[in-house]
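>> received
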Amino acid sequence: MNEYRILFTGIGRRVELLQAFRQAALCQNRNIRLYGTDMAGTAPALVFCDAVREICSMRDESYIPELLEICRRDSIHLVIPTIDTDLSALSGNRKQFEAIGAKVLISSPDMVRICRDKHVTSRFFAECGLKTPMPARDWKQYTGGYPAFIKPRDGSSSVNAFKALNARQLEQYASQVDSYIVQPFIEGNEYTVDIFCDFEGRPVFITPRQRMAVRSGEVIKTKITMDARMLEESQAIIRRFKPCGPITVQLIREEKTGEDYYIEINPRFGGGAPLSMKAGADSAAAVLRLLAGEKLTYTAGAAEDGTVYSRFEQSVCVGGRKQGRAVQGVIFDLDDTLYGEKQYIRSGFLAVAKRLGDPELAGRMWRFFTEGKPAIDRLLEEMGRPDLKDECMDVYREHTPKLTLYDGVKDMLQKLKAAGIKVGIITDGRVRGQKQKLKALGLDALIPDIIMTDELGGTVFCKPNDIAFRIMQRRWKIPFEQIAYVGDNPEKDFQAPEQLGMQRIYFRNPDGLYSSDPDGGIEEITDVLKVLEGMQN
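>> returned
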């Protein structure tokens, strides 16, 4: 599979989750394309997706048909739900998605029903041999003592959950909450266990963590706590539940007795799940490995015990642009933006052909290239000399190319500099090869600020990683909002600039190797000047 297409439903604020998948793909050298669904198109995490798909309400009867059509049209490989609202619908319709090639990362309908009804959840914990505060469905029948805890049977995020100190308060809260349960209030430290299993329900990671600070039901400060008893208790849950992918389990370790009381299961990635991933239990990476057909085994102690994470808020622009934010700096991509990359490929083939003693061989390699075949490999196979591959590849990568800038590029760059606008380049690729290109084009002398991502420490820093853009911004000391990035590959070039709040200019290069969006953009690279003039106004 050349590219993994993953659709997140109800993506909301799950920026950390998307970032975890991107980081996992970078580390595994896999290509992924992330899709997000939303009704209004203003959810902040959508900015971090490659594509956004509008959809009706999850409670609408046309929700599943619309989602199926999206998966069919976009050839989605995996659907990942992120909120409770659509868990039952997705679980109940898993076979329809699988029929069109889209796996849903969700447990069986029976297990989802257990999670959605807190009264049934408590019975499930008891059947696992675990302690749980047994609930009552009517406050009048509650005999568990005070303080008591009342919450909706199918609620989430601590909405309409109250601590009642006496029967009078309990009666009052019961009148405010529809379809509730009442349980004894357990005093102690709260924990979440992030559990990840393979598609057949076999455990891969179990990561308990203490909920040190919580806001609106979501953890904002947590400590990885690889407690032996919690790990063993979690195994008991897994054996009966057999999760498909992620579940999060919540418990309270009672302050006086030290007993663990289990209270809730959510069959999805919890809001704090990326913190366990950062600590070493990388379930995002595990998802990609499972999609690749790998067999995974349980990794005990994958997360670093004692690690503490504290979360913070950050804003992103999801609509419109502030007027009057004049562009003060322009960053260009190099290949297929300032010159045609096919020039470099032809030049490299000619250098290889000359080393092989026949310049005419360059034409054969070019033919293989246009057919989408590995040109040098195919040529050497036909010649019966595959042993020369390493030597030929070195010649290709180390040769001094003959290149020319697109018409008007040099004049455009000089005009930008004369207008006091800073100009820079951020480019991916082997360092020596990129330096040879820059020298051949004269850009090394014309543009002072050039960042080669491979030079930062390897391919992990390539676009869409945002490190190079942050370095350039700090170097220039210009707000991101006043920097524009110009590139030819929307899928890769614009992810980081968009997330950082930069302005983007798409060069729809008709002869480029990677231009993929047929709409919008500029057709001549020198039209950057016109676009910038419009931005200034």
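>> The two ends are 46 Å apart (CA to CA).
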